[in-house]
Amino acid sequence: MDNLLGEFFGTMVLMVFGCGVCACNTLAKSKGQNGGWICITTAWGFAVMLGVFTATTLGAPQGDLNPAVTLGKTLIGIYTIPQFLATAAVQILGGICGAAVVWLAYLPHWAETEDQAAKLGIFCTAPAIRNYPLNFLCEVIATFFLMFAIWMIFSKQVGVIPVGLGPYIVGVLIWALGLSLGGPTGYAMNPARDLGPRIAHAILPIAGKGGSDWSYAWIPVAAPLVGACAAYVVSVVIHAF
Q: What is the spatial distance between Cα 84 and Cα 74, in angstroms, rounded to a whole number?
């Protein structure tokens, strides 16, 4: 369990930069308002990179920041079930804390922003077209390629990646996934990324906030876990390990 501190702070850093760019692009009177999708996806890639560096430095060499990724690694024997559950729990807690930091950083802007859905979108994902079965499918697909690509990048066949380069490559992967598959659902791909900040939205005294859309919240939690399992099955079938 010596990875827990790193996974907590790594996920918190992920949320500070990830939810932060959403706040910068969304909130009224922000200097970055209406920066656009490319700005958002780029910053999320950077956010993952910085979170992985943080997690690694603080004793979590896997630098998952994501219960779905941790589940995939549990299936190949890196974690035990108790280690998976503890790691997922601190990742979600890190997500809550990181989102709270963003709320504080943009404190005067919440009251200036009237759109409740836009405020919620800073914390968690929502579908562009609400169709739960298809939204679920999109998140499964996106997370499948997240987990599958991670295993391809760090495979023995590719060879040893120089120390310190891995987080940059994973950041590029996140950037590519956002640009390519992020349109339908906002590419959560990570239960901690969505559930943690959604809980923060629910409990923080955010000026003028609406509901936290709990009717949708199960999809960005369950679908990434299914996507990671699917990536494992396909990887085993094609002998990727």
A: 7
Q: For residue 163, is pLDDT > 90?
A: no
Over residues 3-41, the pLDDT tens digits come to 999 999 999 999 999 999 999 999 999 999 999 999 999
Q: Of 209, 202, 217, 197, nearest to 100 (Cα)?
A: 197
Residue type, 186: G
CA pair distance 183, 7, nearest whole angstrom: 28
Please work out, in degrees rounded to the nearest 5, the angle formed at the alpha carbon of residue 4 by the alpha carbons of 206 and 166. Answer: 95
117 pLDDT tier (thresholds 50, 70, 90) = very high
Distance in angstroms (rounded) separating the CA atoms of residues 77 and 7: 18
3 touches 60 (CB < 8 A): yes
Burial readout 1-37 (b: 16 or more C-beta within 10 A, e: otherwise)? eebbebbbbbbbbbbbbbbbbbbbbbbeebebeebee
| In contact, 119 and 109? CB cutoff 8 Å | no
Predicted model pTM = 0.96
